[in-house]
Design brief:
endosome; 335 residues; 10 helices; cell membrane; 71% helix; Rhopdopsin 7-helix transmembrane proteins
């Protein structure tokens, strides 16, 4: 594609920009396309269902009406939106890409950027909240509901802005030489910025959770010298497992995709397109794992899950037990 530096290609179609970076839009569905779309849609269904379950549990149980659970609910909302955005992508990919207008393409990518950015920032906000709570020796944060709402609004504002930035001008429609291979209408500099922002969030979480772990471990070691109880050691082990699950999941799900974005952003000339879709599916798994890690490990959350599921499928718990769900709260754990 011959580029005129004084000309912007606003009237060009999506195929023009794909041709510019030598990225092929398949004419027909290939076996690998079916695999990626099939796996992606399956993951989306589980993401949507699990995060709806988490949001319903937080809404129903008054024990969860605290700042940390409001943030968990917002995380579930972000992950739910991520599942919907990714499902939208699955129905607008492959051979269907040619039918997209420029703005439809930006919408497709913007939904993904917004949802995944909101999910990552939520994870960082939860890490900071836990840090503040544990270091002030509190069970729940003293943060007011007003501050929580403002924090949640700020999270979504940042995420929405990140999703709109390419549409508002940070793209390569006037600079074809700076076009990304993975996202042919995106500027490579934007991809680098987005990847670095998420890596920074990851670094903050690593530092915060490391400080929490070291603090709790030292405190429990000092306390264990004055008591014979094993509860302190169990707390340390449980915290260690949770920390490594959180960090391990994030590293496994996000690092490959972020590295791929950085490689594309610096124009490394390597085959980033070969692994593009697989890295996106892997990153989406983080939205599926979040409700499992942050919620399922909570016993009260598990009990609320059982209540919800027993209400949806009362026959699974027996007719007599179904009545107990409504009239005998103490028996809700058994449905």
């Amino acid at each position: 594609v011959n580029e005129d530096k004084n000309f912007c290609y606003y009237d060009s179609n999506v195929s023009f920009f794909y041709l510019n970076v030598n990225k092929t839009i398949p004419e027909e569905w290939r076996p690998q396309d079916y695999v990626v779309v099939g796996l992606g849609l399956t993951v989306c269904v589980f993401i949507i269902l699990t995060n709806i379950l988490v949001m319903s549990a937080i809404f129903m149980n008054r024990r969860f009406h605290y700042p940390i659970y409001y943030l968990l609910g917002n995380l579930a909302a972000a992950d739910l939106f991520a599942g919907i955005a990714y499902m939208h992508l699955m129905f607008h990919t492959g051979p269907w890409t040619k039918k997209l207008s420029i703005y439809q393409w930006f919408l497709r990518q913007g939904l993904i950027d917004t949802s995944l950015t909101a999910s990552v920032i939520n994870l960082m906000a939860i890490a900071l909240e836990r840090h503040q709570t544990i270091f002030t020796m509190q069970l729940h944060s003293s943060m007011t509901n007003r501050r929580v709402i403002l924090l949640i609004l700020a999270i979504w504002l940042i995420a929405i802005v990140m999703g709109l930035v390419p549409t508002m001008g940070w793209n390569c429609m006037c600079d074809l030489q700076n076009c990304s291979k993975m996202a042919p209408l995106y500027s490579r500099s934007y991809l680098v910025f987005w990847a670095v922002l998420n890596l920074f969030s990851f670094t903050v979480m690593v530092v915060v959770y490391t400080r929490i772990f070291i603090y709790v471990r030292r405190k429990n070691l000092r306390m264990s010298q004055h008591t014979s109880q094993t509860k302190h050691k169990e707390t340390v082990v449980s915290l260690m497992r949770t920390v490594f699950m959180i960090l391990g999941c994030f590293v496994i799900c996000w690092t490959p995709g972020l590295v791929l974005l950085l490689l594309d952003g610096v124009n490394c000339g390597c085959g980033v397109l070969t692994y593009e879709k697989y890295m996106l599916v892997l990153a989406e798994f983080n939205s599926l794992m979040n409700p499992i890690i942050y919620s399922y490990r909570d016993q009260d959350m598990r009990r609320t899950f059982k209540r919800i599921l027993c209400c949806l499928w009362p026959r699974a718990g027996g007719r007599g037990q179904h009545a107990g769900v409504h009239h005998k709260p103490a028996q809700t754990d058994h449905c």
